[in-house]
Fold:
Amino acid sequence: MSHTAEVDGLQLTMPADWWVWKYDDSSFHRNQFQSFAQGSKAVDAVALSGDGTLWLIEVKDYRRHRRTKPGSVFDETASKVRSTLAGLAAARVNANELAERDRAVQALTCRQIRVALQLIQPSRPSKLFPRLVDPYDARQQLKRVVRPVDPHPVVSQALNDDKLPWETANLHTS
Structure:
């Protein structure tokens, strides 16, 4: 089982008793579920902790890439959470690959679901790379849209944040 995932130029390293799955890159999502209902997007990673907590993880690194999509990053994350949960439910019975089917079964036998948004913004905002959201308002905005799934979501705005039980590192230097 893998304990790391590469997302948006970052490496997420999970604790030893966890597994992490780049669900949005999975064969099931790409070949079977992505086109469902006029398109289904997924969170960047799905992780299952040793205590049975399922983490739905979305990573946005706006230090190098400006946001070009219209709409709220929080609404987009909530939509991806919903689609990922639906995809996992379908994958547990319909995934062509047995390993992906097994992962979906394990994920859906979780004891708790948590949502995490790693929203990394420029430390020194500029006109080219402004801050997307007010850091003090981000958690409330995410909480408002994902409350039925996780009433206490986590918004991290740093690479390594005590709020997250995993470590995050840059894969490239600059």
The beta strands are 4-7, 10-13, 19-21, 45-48, 53-61, 112-120, 154-156, 167-170. The chain has one domain: 4-170. The mean pLDDT is 88.
